[in-house]
Write a structure and sequence with these properties.
By secondary structure, the chain is mostly helical. It has three helices and no strands.
Length: 77
């Protein structure tokens, strides 16, 4: 049995001993941990995409971001 399986089983055993309101707190805590855990892939997996976008296209995108995303329209709200 792996360490992870043992941990899960131990958590379940402990959880079974708690009243429902404390089980809810454990569930809420587990949800909070899951949300805070970073998601995505390692950078090494993305290296195959390096250089796939043409330099000119990157320049056009950068200019569009600077021109349109750097401004705040105070009357927008």
């Amino acid at each position: 049995m792996t360490e992870v399986s043992t941990i899960k089983q131990d958590v379940i055993r402990q959880l079974d001993q708690l009243p429902p309101e404390l089980q809810r707190q454990v569930l809420d805590f587990a949800h909070a941990l899951a949300i805070s855990f970073p998601k995505g892939v390692h950078g090494k997996q993305l290296l195959s995409f390096s250089g796939i976008i043409e330099t000119e296209d990157i320049q056009v995108m950068s200019e569009a971001i600077e021109a349109d995303c750097e401004r705040v329209d105070v009357n927008e709200w």
